[in-house]
Amino acid sequence: MRVVDANGIHIFQFESLEVGPVAHGIFARHGGVSPEPYASLNLSVSTGDSRENVRENRTRAFRALARAPDTVADLWQVHSADVIVADTPNGPHDYKGKADGLITDRPGVTLFLRFADCVPILLYDPRRPAVGVVHAGWRGTLLKACAAAVQAMRESYGTRPSDIVAAIGPSIGPCHYAVGPEVVAATRVVFAEAEALLQRVNGAYHLDLWQANAQALRAAGVEQVEVGEVCTACRRADFFSHRANGGRTGRFGALIGLR
Q: Does 2-172+221-258 carry CATH code 3.60.140.10?
């Protein structure tokens, strides 16, 4: 991944997505107006931060990528594998609905979700063209939410999975993501190569969410998968981390849209 500084806003971007008319980025926590513990580019009102701060932060983030804030389409994220087609921005509504995947083929719509350890997954079909974004924590990962978004693009736009460029962004890495026995057991049921995703660290199992989602994408027919391998718990100076910050923290954002 490369990092771009746009007026103090730090944007992590993928080389694989810089190939066509697509705007994208994962926003670090710098360049906003929110106070601690949300300092400073908190992009979610669900944290306890004020709506005024979040509104200003979102405006700054969108403008850093030359996207109008009123083109936003976002979700009430619920750790599901549900996907919503966004033909229009939110408009007068706060969210498009309760789900964890968004897709669109409209240049006037900017897809936007929020994170603080869960995995941001960006999807781009350069042939259609169309884009998607997915929020995947351990539940969404085991539900293969990313594969559900690929299927939704196939059904809605005629996308061929082999044409999709997928990018897996900053999230908690296997170095910090210890999981309990119920997650270990579920991982072994869902993934054929589960043992490659589970690592023993100081007597506890750690789950590799990056490779689990990459595995799910490849099983869905996606051939081009870029994994950023940036751990939010390791990089607390750059990203909000729910686990490393004890649960009281902000949310960073992932954005993708067609130009």
A: yes
